[in-house]
Amino acid sequence: MADHSFADLTLAALYDGIHPWGPDDDFYLDLVRSADAVLDVGCGTGRLLARAADEGHPGRLVGLDPAAAMLVQARRRAAGVQWLLGDLRTHRWQGDFDLVVMTGHAFQVLLGDEELRTALRAIRAALAEGGRFVFETRNPAVRAWETWTPDRGREVTDADGRAVRVWHEVEDEPAGDRVTFTENFDCPAWDHRRTSRTTLRFLAPGPLSAFLSEAGLRVTEQYGDWERGPLTPESAEIITVAGPA
Fold first, then answer.
1. pLDDT tens column, 76-91
2. Residues with Cβ < 8 Å from 7, sequence gap 6 or more?
3. Measured by CB atoms within 10 angstroms of the end CB, which terminus of the chain is less buried, N or C?
């Protein structure tokens, strides 16, 4: 479960260990390989664009993230990627990219209607004609947050080889389409436990398509899994490909 609120350098260094490379990364990497100019919104530690750069991607790669600690990790990875601190309110483009992605459920941190509209308008403006915006959001019908419980915690190893326990706790029942939870981190060598608090928005396919349409974007493909299977009510993910309307 990705979390884009890792402002702490210690937590940012743990991020890839908590969220190892998986089928979702392979899905997005295939898209990046076939695009000339790519913007990764909420790029986190930068591993997607860094992998593409390491493979010799010949085009423009831009990673954008609001957490300076995450970009510290990204800037250690690869030359040939432009790493930018900020969000879609502080950086604007006009027809610069043939692919814009939001990975790791970053789309779900856009909470308010106007915040979401602003981001989608900026993405539409950044897309070249024929470009694609690709992202995923968890399907609210599956109620994934019900599995975010302390008993499902896990251990990861930090850069010094120390075990860090990580677990989640949902604070309350969902408030409309929003769920607030904490990601907790504890290590015997630390002087205190660290906690990252996040609220995510779970949009159903209908409202999601309506927001995209309002911003001048049209859904061209939608999948329910990373193998491009059909979207069903039981699908854990709503993986969306949209282009200029």
1. 987 889 999 999 999 9
2. 67, 68, 69
3. C
78 CB neighbour count, 10 Å cutoff: 19
What would the two tokens of residue 14 be? 């743990």
Contacts with 174 (C-beta within 8 Å, 6 or more apart), sequence order: 145, 202
**What is the per-residue pLDDT across 12-54, written as a single tens digit (0 to 9) for each?**
888 888 889 999 999 999 999 999 999 999 999 999 999 999 9
Output the pLDDT for position 152: 95
CA–CA separation, 71 and 19 (whole Å): 16
On the question of pLDDT at 71 being above 70, the answer is: yes
pTM above 0.90, yes or no: yes
